[in-house]
Amino acid sequence: MSIDVLPEPGRSVVAVLPPVAGEGHWAGAPSAVAADGRIYLAYRLRRPVGEGRGYAIVVAVSADGERFETLTTITQDEMDTDSLERPALVRTPEGRWRLYLSCATRDTKHWRVEVLEADDPAAFDPRERRTVLPGDPKTGVKDPVILRKGGRWHLWACCHPLQDPGETDRMVSDYATSADGLDWTWHGTALTGRPGAWDSRGARITAVRFDGDRVLAYYDGRAGAEENYEERTGLAVGTDPAALTPVGAAPAASSPHRGGGLRYLDLVDLPGGRVRLYYEYTRADGAHELRTELR
Q1: Residues 87, 43: contact at Cβ < 8 Å?
Q2: Residue 175: left (phi > 0), alpha (psi -120 to 50), or beta?
Q3: SS3 at position 250
């Protein structure tokens, strides 16, 4: 199967509904891992701005990839954050589990990434968190995409400039590597939006696939600040994970509803060469639900 499979919402089913119907209520921002014949999924629950924003991260498990049983829920208060955004769920080569959490630093526009580690994905303890991507006074860091290849860890994170309070929604994707997945070395910006294009306001990598010397990234993009929260999915390619180029003049996938949001795409390779997709999808009522497709 080609590694550049694209979402087709008409083929999808709902994996997780938002707890409340209506605009500003979301279930999404998925990160999935296939292990031991099951699929483990971490996702974010969100309320409207002013009502709690990203209030919880859920870790769940499924035998079929569509119907999930909750293993644990981590709240914003437990992580001492104003909001939680996309998590990254990872299994280490030693068989342990890590949950990287995007945390909004209280009363600021700053973001940081903290990590929890456990022997079992039901046993993450927020009291044992560790900051791994602190950002800095000029940069918020969140929404990491993390994988292992060639004996080292690779990471792409969404970075927001904080110098101008009116421009903090702008975003680029920076690339880093690590020997252990905890201490990271940055290698610069891997992907940015294009002036005048549908992704001109920002480009946030959501999934990466390696195919020999080719690197393929899926990313969220938007043209302006008014499209914040309604990003659509694009493709970028390259031969260097630190230097990727957007493909095409239009989004590769979107929702037909509201602002067209189809974002935070993740892909899981399954036995037999099949692939399962997970993504956050905007509904007609303005809520976001978590959908999945099997290819």
Answers
A1: yes
A2: beta
A3: coil
CA distance 257 to 161: 30
DSSP letter string over 5-24?
----GGG-EEEE--SS-STT
CA distance 290 to 295: 17
Q: Which residues of 78-109 are buried (b: 16+ CB within 10 A; e: fewer)?
A: bbebbbbbbbbbbbeeeeebbbbbbbbbeeee
Q: Using CB atoms within 10 Å of the CB of residue 239, give its burial: 0 to 12 exposed, 13 to 18 middle, 19+ buried.
A: exposed
Distances (CA, A) of 96 to 116, 225, 233: 11, 39, 31
**Residue of 180, 238, 227, 178 whose CA lies nearest to 205:** 238
pLDDT digit of tens for each residue in the chain (295 aa)? 355 799 999 999 999 999 999 999 999 999 999 999 999 999 999 999 889 999 999 999 999 999 999 999 999 999 999 999 999 999 999 999 999 999 999 999 999 999 999 999 999 999 999 999 999 999 999 999 999 999 999 999 999 999 998 899 999 999 999 999 999 999 999 999 999 999 999 999 999 999 999 999 999 999 999 999 999 999 999 999 999 999 999 999 999 998 999 999 999 999 899 999 999 999 999 999 999 999 9
The burial class, CB within 10 Å (0-12 / 13-18 / 19+), for 130 is: exposed
- What's the burial of 8, exposed, middle or buried (CB within 10 Å: 0-12/13-18/19+)? exposed
Q: Which residues of 165-199 are buried (b: 16+ CB within 10 A; e: fewer)?
A: eeebbbbbbbbbbbeebeebeebeebbbbeeebbb
Record the tokens describing residue 118, joined without a space. Answer: 């456990």
Q: What is the pTM for the complete model shown?
A: 0.97
- In this structure, the strands spanning 202-211 and 214-222 are antiparallel
